[in-house]
């Protein structure tokens, strides 16, 4: 007996989670980047690997690119390659954190030459979006300062707004600017876009097509992230998620690995706020697989999101509303927890099988021989990496 109603299953069927191209490259910490056999050597191979995740799960129809990591000669050709593999190209991520010129800032820099260079990098990203058919330009800024007194924080905020206005004005119809926040790192004293409030203030001043990206790993420990989800949805400004999980800082581990209950609570608020399967909210992963194999790491991740979505859809919201109206604290909490504790894995396996998908996508990928094939074929050349 399935625990999932036809209505829940049709909601799940519409779910799509965008994969980051960089999850397929090598990554690591400041101590060591370990090479993984079979790692892609170029953006074409990253997309081919991402397509495997979609093939085994039907959950990951698009791939986000990072410029210049995924720079190619011909983006129309890359787009065709993606479509041939059964996926599309999604969000374009800019990069203003790996150039010597940006040591003291990019979009906030007081040197007009540096700031112009950073703005023009975003213009180039928008040109790429025109070719890839991407809707979203995602901006994460590594800008800030390390010591009190080092910078004029107010001046930087004003220059940031001016830079973003120029970039926003460059977008073509239907494209969006998505501003991601992060509370610290690489700057350790102040960060120019540290929190949802700053991101909101900056994008609200731009217009309707500027929205906030919430990366689940970018908050201080103990932050009630689902509250932020609720508030941004309420304000109509939640543009996208970067999903991952963390134990300490910006760990970029597999979503749902560190705290499945937090993921459940976040998705519950997404459902409550009308953000599930809404075209306004993009669901993406932002993860790095430092020691585990990358394709199965991504398969595990999208399955975790699907599982927690199914559980959150099981919350009896009518009963919950009654318990809340009656101030029945324990009944309300019990309704919530009942859904969280429901094991939906057998029902999801049955449903996958009924749709012609593998019951167990992890095992099916393992048995497919794809991993062995890329390990044998992709010798020589330079493996792609986070930042390489
Ligand atoms: C750095 O913290 C980061 O993980 C941000 O979350 C971005 O989304 C990502 O890198 C790619 O630029
Ligand atoms: Mn992110
Ligand atoms: Mn991050």
TrEMBL record:
Gene Ontology biological process terms in this record:
L-lyxose metabolic process; rhamnose catabolic process
Q: Reply yes or no: does the keyword Ribosomal protein apply.
A: no
Q: Does the keyword Manganese apply?
A: yes
Q: Which UniProt keywords apply?
A: Carbohydrate metabolism, Isomerase, Manganese, Metal-binding
Lineage: superkingdom:
Bacteria
Give any GO molecular function from the UniProt entry: metal ion binding
Q: What is its EC number?
A: 5.3.1.-, 5.3.1.14
Against Gene3D superfamilies, the record matches this protein to: Divalent-metal-dependent TIM barrel enzymes
Domain Xylose isomerase-like TIM barrel, first and last residues per copy:
73-224
Alphabetical list of PANTHER family matching this protein: L-RHAMNOSE ISOMERASE
Q: What is this protein called?
A: L-rhamnose isomerase/sugar isomerase
**Organism of origin:** Microbacterium immunditiarum
């Amino acid at each position: 007996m399935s625990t999932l109603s036809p209505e829940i299953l049709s909601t799940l069927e519409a779910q799509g989670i965008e994969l980051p191209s960089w999850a397929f490259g090598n990554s690591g910490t400041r101590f060591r980047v370990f090479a993984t056999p079979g790692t892609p050597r170029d953006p074409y191979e990253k997309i081919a690997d991402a397509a495997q995740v979609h093939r085994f799960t039907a959950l990951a129809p698009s791939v986000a690119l990072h410029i210049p990591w995924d720079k190619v000669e011909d983006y129309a050709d890359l787009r065709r390659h993606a479509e041939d593999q059964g996926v599309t190209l999604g969000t374009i991520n800019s990069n203003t954190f790996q150039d010597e010129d940006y040591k003291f800032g990019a979009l906030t820099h007081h040197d007009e030459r540096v700031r112009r260079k950073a703005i023009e990098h975003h213009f180039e990203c928008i040109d790429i979006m025109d070719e890839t058919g991407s809707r979203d330009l995602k901006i994460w800024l590594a800008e800030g300062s390390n010591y009190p007194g080092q910078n004029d924080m107010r001046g930087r905020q004003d220059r940031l707004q001016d830079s973003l206005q120029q970039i926003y004005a460059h977008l073509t119809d239907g494209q969006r600017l998505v501003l991601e926040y992060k509370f610290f790192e690489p700057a350790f004293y102040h960060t120019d876009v540290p929190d949802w409030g700053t991101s909101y203030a900056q994008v609200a001043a731009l217009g309707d097509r500027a929205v906030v990206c919430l990366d689940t790993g970018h908050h201080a420990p103990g932050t009630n992230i689902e509250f932020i989800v609720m508030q941004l949805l309420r304000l109509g400004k939640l543009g996208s998620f970067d999903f991952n999980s963390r134990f300490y800082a910006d760990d970029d581990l597999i979503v749902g690995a560190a705290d499945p209950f937090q993921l459940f609570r976040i998705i519950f608020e997404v459902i409550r706020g009308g953000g599930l399967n809404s075209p306004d909210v993009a669901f993406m992963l932002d993860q790095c697989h430092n020691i585990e194999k990358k394709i199965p790491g991504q398969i595990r991740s999208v399955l975790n999101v699907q599982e927690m979505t199914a559980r959150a859809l099981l919350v009896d919201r009518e009963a919950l509303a009654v318990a809340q109206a009656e101030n029945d604290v324990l009944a309300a909490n019990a309704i919530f927890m009942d859904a969280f504790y429901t094991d939906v894995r057998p029902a999801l396996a049955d449903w996958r099988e009924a749709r012609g998908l593998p019951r167990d996508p992890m095992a099916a990928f393992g048995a497919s021989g794809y991993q062995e094939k890329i390990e044998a074929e992709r010798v020589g050349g330079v493996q792609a990496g986070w930042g390489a």
